[in-house]
Amino acid sequence: MGKLTTIFKDTAIYGLSSIVGRFLNYLLVPLYTATLSAASGGYGVITNIYAYVALALVLLTFGMETTYFRFTNKTHTDSETVYGTTLITVGTISLMFAVLVVLLLDPISQLMGYGDHPDYVAVMAITVAIDAFLCIPFAHLRQQRKSIKFAALKLLNIVITILLNLIYFYFMEGKDVGYVFYINMASTVLLALCLITEYGTFRWKLDRKLLRTMLSYSWPILILGIAGILNQTADKMLFPYIYEGSDMREQLGIYGACSKIAMIMAMITQAFRFAYEPIVFAGVKDKDQHEMYAKAMKFFIIFTLLAFLMVVGYMDILKYIIGSDYWPGLRVVPIVMAAEIMMGIYFNLSFWYKVIDKTIWGAIFSGIGCAVLIIVNVLFVPKYGYMACAWGGFAGYGVAMVASYFVGQKYYPIDYPIKDIALYVVLAWVCFRLMELSADWSMIGQLAFNTLLIIIFVAVILKRDLPLDPILKKLGIKH
């Protein structure tokens, strides 16, 4: 029981810090879209470059975080040697990456479309190299159960980033998008200095034999990570190469900004993951585990559908998160949110192959989903612009979700309440369509009508799955 309590405590700290951090970063969206007009293409640059950053971070860490956790807990390995080997390896590769990008800066910048601003590429290459290196000390903090220090440093980094952005873009009224990347590098360097005590807690020695074993374990994780991150970023990297209009960066910026509104769903999914994952693995041998999987899936879908309706229903308020010249892209929000729901379902389904140690299936499903996303983008972005990006993500996650369900039912069958889930999906879809029909009403009338629809959805939840009678009875309330 004590071990499980520790898991819950650490989960709460890691989960809260991650969600709060993500929310604080979210606050940069209104700042950027208010100061960088859509026509300037500035937010399009941010969207594009950070997509490359996300991919580079996965490549440079190449699954070594998870591998470090796995090997540091093996009885026949020395934890200090594992830490030292991991840190030296990731640090060396990250340094080589940064040096290589700087040496080949001109051709790389030209290829990415930033020949007029190669400094953007250089600064972010250095930043992501440092970030990749720091992933291992942060993993070490988790392994050492230093969750408070972990959370504090993560939040400190984000707060400093936000403050520097506010100083430049708000108080100094700056307009140069390049400062976004310089600020990121400055806060990352400061974070590296804060972690300096974590670099001297081991012997600086590379165990080559151990490294070979660790790499054989990490490569499937790398493949899974690449496929997973491409599902999130491939459209933003491909867009400049396949969109045929002269307003490419403007359109990409609009898509990127409006997609951020849909990231509310990603935060809900992440919160669920932090709470759910430790429980699943802690009780993997419990007899009622299958029933727990089924119930967790059902309630995840119910509450994400409710969140979907609330975002869509109050879009006339939420749209003020971004600048008004980005509003034409708001039509992608429901599509991107639906894709995020399917991604969350796919995550829940993924436990079957993790539990039976068949993670190769994760790489297969993610790879198929990524291929679908890329094909949809290549075929339809030239004609339909960023709307094809949104539908590409929808199609990619949808295919991965369906494939994981049917294969999972063969290898690890779970009796999911499909009929109940289908009922809520249909009800949510009907409410959504009715909300769309009220789009031309006055703002007050629309919000009132949408609120009524949300209340009806909640009433169905309370009637079918969260009845109030037992709660009221315990409270001694008669009704």
Summarize the structure.
The chain is mainly alpha-helical and 479 residues long.
Task: List its salient traits.
mainly alpha, 80% helix, 479 residues
Write up what this structure looks like:
By secondary structure, the chain is an all-alpha fold. Helices cover 80% and strands 0% of the residues. It is built from 20 helices and no strands. Helix 1 runs antiparallel to helix 11, helix 12 packs antiparallel against helix 14 and helix 12 packs antiparallel against helix 19. The protein is globular and about 65 Å long. It starts with a helix and ends in a 5-residue tail after the last helix.
Biggest β-sheet: count, sense, barrel?
none
Overall pLDDT: 85
Count of beta strands:
0
Structural class: mainly alpha
Number of discrete helical segments: 20
| Span between termini | 39 Å
What is the string of SSEs from the N terminus onward?
Answer: HHHHHHHHHHHHHHHHHHHH
Low-pLDDT residue intervals, each spanning 5 or more residues: none
